[in-house]
Design brief:
Layout lengths: L16 E4 L19 H7 L5 E4 L2 E3 L4 E2 L5 E6 L4 E4 L6 E4 L9 E6 L4 E3 L2 E3 L18 E3 L4 E3 L2 E3 L10 E2 L2 E3 L2 E3 L2 E4 L3 E2 L2 E3 L2 E3 L2 E5 L3 E2 L2 E3 L2 E3 L3
Parallel strand pairs: 1-2, 2-6, 3-7, 5-8, 6-9, 7-10, 8-11, 9-12, 10-13, 11-14, 12-15, 13-16, 14-18, 15-19, 16-20, 17-21, 18-22, 19-23, 20-24
Antiparallel strand pairs: 4-5
């Protein structure tokens, strides 16, 4: 006797949008403004590759996650997500914590295929010990190859070694000022397009930039 065949339907979701607001209800999985997460990291962890995290105006200085034995990141985008603000960097801030050392908090970690758009990143710091790349570099942001940062402002971040503002990644239409590091006060190892770097400082080499590439970039008044 033959059993009837079962028909199975599989639907593949490319990701979905969840929401972040300083006045949200913080009810997972944060799929509307009323239930929005109150810190960005919670919304990132509730999403899936291909999804979007939409962030309302405000200063985000809570939450965080460590990656690969490095310092805490205020946000750690470990999947191929797009994290972007509603109204841009003038209204939306990701704040790390300092000074450099064991208690430091970097602003952002961005993995391959992820995109961070429309934020001010400030007060990010690194460890002074540990892995020279992931632990001691990229005060504002540390990026994997294939990560993208766009329309962001980086100021008053510090790295113990490389990239006070950012280490690695592709950076579009962003500005860096008053960041510092041993090498590459503003940026190190990043591919910069249509960016401005001013008043950044390195005690070693590259007050504005160390390594990487520049296309249509203004570098002025760095030390």
């Amino acid at each position: 006797m033959f059993q009837p065949l079962c028909k199975i339907s599989i639907e593949i979701y490319p990701g979905y949008t969840n929401f972040v607001s300083t006045v949200g209800g913080h009810i997972p999985p944060f799929t509307n403004w009323d239930n929005a997460a109150t810190n960005i990291q919670a919304a990132i962890e509730a999403n899936i590759p291909g999804g979007v995290v939409l962030v309302a105006d405000g200063v985000y200085a809570d939450g965080g996650a460590a990656v690969a034995g490095g310092p805490t990141n205020r946000i750690a985008i470990t999947n191929a997500l797009k994290v972007h603000s509603v109204n841009g960097p003038a209204f939306t801030t990701i704040a790390g914590g300092g000074p450099c050392g064991e208690a430091a908090v970097r602003c952002a970690y961005v993995t391959t295929g992820a995109r961070l758009s429309g934020f001010t990143l400030t007060s990010g710091h690194t460890w002074t010990t540990g892995d020279t790349e992931r632990a001691q570099s990229g005060g504002g942001a540390w990026c994997e190859a294939g990560a993208t940062v766009e329309n962001c402002l980086f100021h008053d971040n510090e790295a113990n070694l490389w990239g006070g503002g950012i280490r690695n990644g592709t950076v579009l239409n962003s500005s860096f000022w008053n960041n510092s590091a041993l090498n590459g006060g503003g940026a190190s190892g990043a591919m910069l397009h249509q960016c401005i770097l001013s008043n950044n400082t390195a005690t070693g080499e590259g007050g504005g930039v160390s390594g990487g590439s520049l296309e249509n970039v203004l570098v002025v008044d760095n030390q």
